[in-house]
Amino acid sequence: MSQINGNTASVGEQKAPAIKGHAWFASYLFSNISSGLTSPLIPLFVVIYLHANVIDVGTISSISSAASVPALIFWGNLSDRIGKRKIFLLIGFFGSFLSLLLILITTTIGMYVVTLIVFQALAMASTPVATLLILESTVEKRWPSVMSSFNTVSYVGLVAGLGIGTLMLNLYGNRNSHFLPELYVVSAFIYLFAGISAWILLPEPKKTIPRYSQKLSRYYFFRTVERVRYFPTQVIHTISVKKVGKKLAARTKLYIFYTCFLMFGFQLFFIPFPVFMLNVLHSSETDVFLMYLLNNIASALAFRLSGATINRMGVSKSLSMALFSRVGVLGFATFLAVFLVGFRFSIPLAILSYTLMGFFWSFISISWTTSISKLAIPENRGKAIGYYNSFLGVGQIGSGVVSGYVSYSLGYGTEFLLASLAVLIGGLFLVRFQLRMNNMIASDDVKNTKLPSY
After folding, report:
1. Domains of the chain, start order
2. CA nearest 74: which of 125, 4, 130, 138?
3. Residue 445 pLDDT class (50, 70, 90 cuts)
4. Exposure winner among 228, 271, 293, 353, fewest CB in 10 A?
5. Pairwise CA distance, residues 334 & 413, whole Å
6. What is the pLDDT of residues 334-354, one digit of tens each?
7. Whole-prediction pTM value?
8. DSSP alpha helices (H): ranges in 83-226?
9. How far apart are the first and last CA of the chain?
C-alpha cells in the first residue's frame, strides 16, 4: 500500500493526460495474478519436480533475490536517464512471458537457476517505473484516489493468483510433479496478457516526475505483503547511481541496518518452512499454496487495523507488540518442529503459524517505513526509502544460504530456534533505538505522527 497525501493542484497547473476510466489497471491485475501464482513455486519445484533438498531451496532463493537487486537499480536509473516509462513496463511483462517459458526445457538445478535469473533480470524492468507511470499520467490532486484503486487492483490480483494456484493444484496437481511446470506456463501467458493490455491501454505520459523530487519525497510504498524472495512489485525510490541530496544521517543508516537484520531473521523461518511442510509434515502442494494465500490475506486484513493501532498507541509500542508476537510464533514453530511432528493437527497448526506471521507484518512494515521517513531529512526521504527497500533485499539474500544449510545439517527445530533468537535480539535493539527516536528528531514526535486512513 502507499502513503499518499492529497494536495490540491495549484492554479494553472498543467494537467497530465487523463486516461478515461481504470481500464489500464488491467495490466497490473494480470501481472499480479501471475506473481501470486508463482510466489510459492520455488520450494515446490525444487523439492517435488527436481527432487532436491532444502539447501538447494535456500541457495536458489538467495540467487533469485540477488538477481533482482542490481536489475531493479539498473532499470530504475535507466528509466530516469532516458525519461521514458512505458517501454520498461513492456520489457518487464513481455520479458517475464518469454523467460518463464524456459521452464519447458528445465530439468536440472542449474537450468532452473538460469531461468530464475533471466526472469528476475527482465521482470524487474517494470517494478521501478510502474508507480511513477501512474502518477505521471494523473493530475496531482487525483493521486490519492488513483493510487488507492491501483493498490486494491494489484492486491486482488495477487490473492487471485494464489487462489487460482490452490484450486488448480487441488483439482489436478497434488503430488503430480509434471503439473508444476504447467503452472509456470500458465503464469507466463498471464504475463503476456499483462503486456498486451499495457501496450494497448496505457499511453506514455507527457510529463516526467524525477524519482527524487521534493514532490515525491513524501510518497512511498509500504510493503503490505512480505515478499519472500525478491522486491515488492511496486516501489518509487531505489538506489541511484548519482549523488542525490545529502548523505544519510548515521541514525538513519543504523535503523536501516536493524531492519535488514530483522528481515534476515524473518526469512530464516519463511524460506525453509514450506520444505518443512512438504518433507516433515508430508503436506500437499495445495496446503502450501493455501498457507501462502492465508498469509497474504491476513497481512492485508491487518493493514487498516495496524494504521489505526499505530495512530492510537504510537510507533514504538505497536512495533514492540508485532515483533515480540512474531518471536512467540517462531517459538511455537520450534516447538512444532521438535515435539508435534506426528500430531494429528500439525499441518493446520503450521498453516496457522504462517498466517499469524503475515498478520503482524503490516504493523512492522508501517512502523519501519514511517520511522525511516521521520529519521531522514525531508530532501533525503526518498533516498532513505530507496536504501531501506534495497537492504531488505540484502537481508533476504543472506538468509537463504544460511537457512538451507542449518535446516539440512541441524534440523528444522534448530533453524526455527535460530530465527526466534535473531528476531528477539534484533527486536530488542530496534525497540531500544525506537524509544530514543524522539530525542534524535528535533521538533518531531514519532508517537504522535498521524498516519493516513487506509
Report:
1. 21-213 (1.20.1250.20), 243-441 (1.20.1250.20)
2. 125
3. very low
4. 353
5. 5
6. 999 999 888 889 999 999 999
7. 0.84
8. 86-100, 109-123, 127-136, 143-168, 179-201
9. 9
